[in-house]
Amino acid sequence: MGVQLSILAQSSPSIGIFSYIDVLEDVHYIALLNSSRFLKTCKAVDPNGEIIIKVFVKPREGYSLTSTVETLNKESMLLSQLPNVLNYSKIIESNRAGYLIRQHLRRNLYDRLSSRPYLHEIESKFIAFQLLQALNDIHNLDIVHTDIKTENIMVNSWNWIALTDFAAHVKPIYLPEDNPGEFSFYFDTSKRRNCYIAPERFNTQLYNDSEKRYEPSKEMDIFSAGCCIAELFSEGIPIFNLSQLFKYKTQEYDVNEYLNEHFSENKELKELIMDMIQLDPTRRLSTLQLLEKYRGTFFPDYFYTFTYDYFRTLASLVTSIPNTGSLTEKCLLEDKQNVCNNSLLKVYDDFSSICASLNFPIITDKPKQAKDKLQPNVFSSEHIKIGHNTFVQLKSFTSYKSIQPVEEECALLFISYLSRILRNLTSSSNKIKCLELLAAFSQFISDDNKIDRVIPYYETCFEDENNSMIQALSLQCTTQVLSAVEQVNKLNENVFMDYLLPRIKRLLNRSKEHLYVRMVLANLVGNFVSLVSKFREISLMSRLNSNEQDNDESILTNNKYNGRLMQQMEEIIISLLTDSSVWVKISLLDNVLSLCKYLGKEKTNDIILSHLITYLNDRNPMLRMALVEAISGISILLGPVTLEQYILPLLIQTLTDSEELVVTATLETLHDLCKTGLVNQINAFTVANEISPLLLHPNYSIRQFSLLTLFEISQQLSKPDLYCNLYPIIKPYFGFEVEFELDVMLDSCKTPISRTIFNLLCSWSLRASNSLFWKQVMSKEVDAFGKPTSTFITRDYIPKNYGLTNNTLRSSKAMDEHPNGFVRLFDNSEIPLTTEDKLWIDKFKTLGMKDTDLWKLLCLRSYILRTKNKHNEKSQLGLHEIDENLDKKYSSIGIANVMPHNVFYDIKFIEQEETDSEELPLSENDTQKQLMEHSLLPKESVPTIVNMNGSLILRNKPSAITTPNLRNIYVQLEPNRTHNQVHNPYSPRRFDDRSFPIPEYVVSNSYEGDVESIEQFLKSIDISPTLSDYKEFGIISNAIKKDGRSLISLKGKSICTLSTNIRNLIVSICTSSGSRNPYLVTGSLQGVISVYSMRNIVNGEDYEPALFFNCKATLTNMIMLQGFDTFVVATTDGFVKFFRILQYDPLQENRQSTYTKEIRSFHVSGESNKSGPNGAMDGEEHVTKMEEYIADDKAYLICLTNRSRLFNFDIRRLDDMNFINIPASHGGITTFCTNKESNVLIIGTTKGIIDIWDLRLNILVNSWAFDNNCIIKEIHLMTQLGKNMILILGGSSSGVLSVWNYAKTQCRLIVALPERTPSIENFQPITKRLENVKYNSGNLNSIVSTVHTQGTTIIFSNNETSDMFMLDLSNTNHSKVLFGPNKSEYIFGGRKGTINTTIVSIQRVSSTTETTSSRKNTSNTGNMVTTIETVQRQDKLYLLVGDSLGIINIYD
């Protein structure tokens, strides 16, 4: 077919080639790429990108290419599935031409051989290996290429090849031997005259035989591939041109000359090429034979086992191989970006397996850092973190060179791939991973390749101005990679001067708004200067080893280079030293020693030290502390002269810094300097004199480092200097004779002053106005640094300056009247005091300071004054900067000498006159006093019960008792004189209808000034007493916190039954939390409140209530204030009343007295203490549920009304009433609970919707429903199951009880009752269109009416079977049936419904018939459990169960 086309093809089209392209749909012509006469190759674009179009212009109209198109389509369909093949994506025939269209790739193998970076040997081998694999794949499909040449082997940026332009059905198989023009017409499109065609294809006879169709052989492709491999390894020099091939065919050209010239040292390569270009086709090895023969010799074994397959997988991701049956795969730009990201993540996740497959000896131990010190250079490390827990330690190339894959630099294949990926990544996190992988793989390539192949890609990231993290990490990785370099060639020895430093400087100038980048650069600049020195030393050593002689010109050039290099480094260092950010300066100080070493002593003094000194005046203590920590190393580098003249005076000055952390760091630095011996004796004594008073400082670290410094000074001195000079300085601060051993000095140090006294001393120094205590006079002496000194005045100073003699002063009457007019120092010198000073001294004594310790204040005076002065300087400095931006009217305000003051508030309750002698006692002592008065009555007034074998005998006459057990029957016994005072349940002492008045209080503060604005500000602050400050509520000091683990001890054994013999539904039971003598309070539907003593009930002494009270209205709810002897009652008349209960047993016998008083009364209308029960009629709005919300500064009662309104009010003052507006579309509110830690209110509604309300912001946070939207009956907080866990009773008819995480809106646990199997799908939260949820009238009262929670355990009753269950939600093994007719017929189990949800099931083991009959028997009783509560007495727990018949059962 090729012969026919060649005869018919036009040598030049009659019209422009672009006219043939424009007829194609969605294709736009760009340029003509070659001047071939057979197929015109054009570049164009379509919606998928750039394409190549090969155009065959038809010689005449009506010429058909149908058979050719069909053949090419079949071939392209087969080739489309191969990753190393680029097939024709479209094959089109028009009236005027035929078109072969494929994707455009920018570079072929011929172009790649002349491009930088030049191919490494391992890369060339991998390309040759791919070529053989590609040939093997196409030959297995019985396809022959017939036109393999370097121009038709496309190479992408990571050296993955693709064979393209298959010509078996387009170009002729054979060519004439006597007509080179035919070769040029078909195959020499580049006009290079290079020939890759097999010799046997030049056959004139077969070429002229156009009647017979000849098929190409696979050996022809083997020959062409061999020519390409030879050109590949000879760096672009072809093995044959056309004339050489003809000579080779006639055996006139010896190919060994070419092989020996270019591959003299590579025997395997010569053999490989010869096996492929044998003149006899039958002697050429197939691709499979070649791959097998040269495995492990020329081609590394890891090409076969891992590398090729892994890169083939990556290529399949990147090149978007089409699905079977398609020629192309359409891919959007967004899809390509996702492919790059996914490819990078695959390499990142597979890093460990890659290294293991290639025998890369990575060290993955986590870097160990010293515990006592932080890492000095936080951004420079020898480790790279890959993944979550893999830390790769970076090593030099020479340390791994003995390993074959490392020696062959196989890692270059992955680095080329990652370099290509880096430029196309869009995600910052993926770019970071790519940079880390480049650094990790770089340790397995040579030093030259590190600089040539890796560093340029890091430098391109410097230009990523939109992402400071990328810029900073590229800086860090650059130092890590270059730190592993040990050899530098001549081309790279100037890499810093010509390449790196200009880009770093440009990065620094562009990162003015990126603080993090400047911080990282400041921290790494020390590493860069170290690397600069290292590269210069390597270059110098390489010259010495090569015996190169430096002439004058080279020395001058080298000096100029070093000068320019130093200048560039100085500009970067000065820019960082003068940066506006404190944190950049701190980062620079972490690695400042490297800079000092590089610059030398002279420039360090001029550049570094001159700037660092100014840091001590900075207001940020972190910078001052960082400088002090770094200065010791600089001192050692610069020597003792600089230390004595500049550094040591600054350190002494810094000892009085206002920040104690800075002082501690300064002492540590002085300790290090003294330990090195750089501090001479004279300066050592000065240091000792300055730091000795700090032994009295309240800061532990300051005292310890002061002592350590003194100890180090003592170790440097001789015996005479030690005891003649140092000993007198430090002696006053030790309790006994000092022995200069560290342990002895630690034990003998005198007790320092407390922090309170120290703060008061500082306050005195700031506020002193007329004081001799702080008075200083200048001295003529100078210190060791040449500065004038000052001394405090003593008693001797007064007669010398005022002409008084000591005798006259001593005999003065004033001194006799004021014996404390002086304070004695440890050297017996006396310090005079003014009246103001004496007042301050009295304050110290009030704080517990003894007269014998006042000398400690004198010793610290100098330190305190200098600290105050430095503090004032910094305050004035900061104020000056602020004043520049203020108006002129505020410019005169100054706070120079003002210290912050603590103002304390005090609350005092106003005592009220007792108008009623029977008023409630407020304190426990008053209660005991009044009750003891009753205990003095004759014993016969209280009958004693004696147990006589089961009979009750009264030793004395009983009192008259009125009992309401039978409402219409009263039993009147003989009364006595104490009847009305003690035993009448309706007496005023028992229960007074009069409300207790709310105590008033006065708030005062400790402010002693007279500034009106401050007084007004202090008064504006709302200060309120806590609830525990109100004594009438009766705080319980020994309150017991209920724990779910104690429920395990419950056995379900009945102790007793409390009954009023009247069918009266028990609304609520509440119990006290006191451990000594707890009591329980019950409330019935008819409004009767009963108070029982648990001691009497447990001991079997009395089952009657100690107190009755009729609320005269229907009772709706009752709760106990936790931690108080107060319970709260809500009734239908709209009142919420607070009652206090007091119990006392004056005779320590079995009788006790119970006293109750109403202490608060609140009406839902917002009026407190509204008189009379007729304030609101039944049927109006009233409270149905309550919950207390008591914290340190809050005491609220949250109430729910019958009109579905939620409000809260302050329990203490009965004010601050706030309403919470819940959406009406969510249904009526049925229940709620609060999470005090999170300030969250959880609400349940009649539509089965749960609302989460933020009490701080007063907003609705979240809402959801589930299953069939049954009414939410109860919600309980279950914090011990996990944070944000709640138990919901209701919401579903299949799973009545469920546990949810309200923050994540996830169901975590479902309780499945017998004969009920809840579905997990029903417990998926419904969060949308909740306003459309309809009310579900299904009634759940017949199953579970209430539930009691404690810890992780819940207790509830199945009203259908009358069985009481105790279920441990964290461990079902602890679950059991406490009591019931079917106690032994249940089993408990748990299973995982989903990953997050557990189903706890309760199953019956009895038959269905028994279950049905049992249910019928129990359902006819008409009774159900209404309330469940527990009470603990003397480490034993009791269960209280109230039902609708008015019966309370007690179990242990």
Automatic annotation (TrEMBL):
GO MF annotations in UniProt: ATP binding; protein serine/threonine kinase activity
SMART domains: S_TKc
Reaction catalysis annotation: L-seryl-[protein] + ATP = O-phospho-L-seryl-[protein] + ADP + H(+); L-threonyl-[protein] + ATP = O-phospho-L-threonyl-[protein] + ADP + H(+)
EC number, UniProt record: 2.7.11.1
Membrane topology: Lipid-anchor
PROSITE patterns named among the record's database cross-references: HEAT_REPEAT, PROTEIN_KINASE_DOM, PROTEIN_KINASE_ST
Domain Protein kinase: 27-299
Keywords annotated in UniProt: ATP-binding, Autophagy, Endosome, Kinase, Nucleotide-binding, Repeat, Serine/threonine-protein kinase, Transferase, WD repeat
Tree of life domain: Eukaryota
Record carries keyword ATP-binding: yes
Location of this chain's protein in the cell: Endosome membrane; Golgi apparatus, trans-Golgi network membrane
GO CC terms of this entry: endosome membrane; Golgi apparatus; late endosome; nucleus-vacuole junction; phosphatidylinositol 3-kinase complex, class III, type I; phosphatidylinositol 3-kinase complex, class III, type II
Protein known as: non-specific serine/threonine protein kinase
Organism in which the protein naturally occurs: Maudiozyma saulgeensis
Lineage of origin: Eukaryota, Fungi, Dikarya, Ascomycota, Saccharomycotina
